[in-house]
Design brief:
254 residues; alpha/beta; 2-enoyl-CoA Hydratase, Chain A, domain 1; six-stranded mixed beta sheet; three-stranded mixed beta sheet; 11 helices; binds coenzyme A
Amino acid sequence: MSDILVHTEAGVTTLTIHRPDRKNSITSAMYGAMHEALAAAQADTTVRVVVFQGSETIFSAGNDIGDFLNTPPAGPDAPVFKFLHTLAAFPKPVVAAVCGPAVGIGTTMLFHCDLVYAGDNAAFSMPFVNLGLCPEAASSLLVPQMLGYHRAAEALLLGEPFMAEAALEVGLVNRVVPPSEVNALAQAQARKLAAKPLSSLMQTKRLMKMGQQAQVLAQMKEEGTVFGRMLTEPAAKEAFGAFMEKRKPDFSKV
Ligand code: COA
């Protein structure tokens, strides 16, 4: 079975991240599958809305760390960057249902979703610095904008997690409900959107985003260049090695 389940019904394409044994961490192949599903949803005139969901206990542990080591993204055509670019430029509404940990790209991708519903067990974190990396998905631009600089510094420099209520307070999340209700709520909201005229949805989204779209894409490009370089540097190697060996990383020499 694929680790990305794609299901289309009543004008809504739902992408379920389903890799429970690896905490829904995402491999290059999974980014490729999500990119293709988004491209298909964009082209299909009967699809009006896309929903991303995980399970009641985990949204995503972020990039698969073994994959970072074995097949690091090489250049802008790497599946992760193609996925992020397609998501950031996606013209139709995107809804996310988030329960449990949302690590790294599990959080940064949400800044490109239009509606985000969270379980009260949702924990958002962007521990790029702890992995010897830098932010991606234009999060170095969008997180300070949404959280304010000092809260963004806690999230991005310290890599500290924040819970659903804090995400609600800063506006990353629309509503917090019990985990068992999140996917159903996201589907209900998606169905409401799907009943509206597609051209109005798309124009409204385009107009809300147009002031910043070029800047977002430029930021993602610059982040991608730096991120790709940092993946090969000693700090990241130490962090990934430590994760695989289940020990604390030692950054004293890098
Ligand atoms: N890449 C690869 N494997 C991962 C993973 C990742 N990002 N996240 C978790 N796993 C694996 C673990 O190594 C573990 O494997 P094992 O059963 O062989 O020991 C398994 O998934 C279960 O993870 P575990 O850490 O035991 O689950 P948990 O419920 O205690 O914690 C998380 C869940 C998500 C908080 C924790 O796994 C975590 O912090 N993961 C790393 C997140 C990360 O740094 N991602 C990169 C962001 S750029």
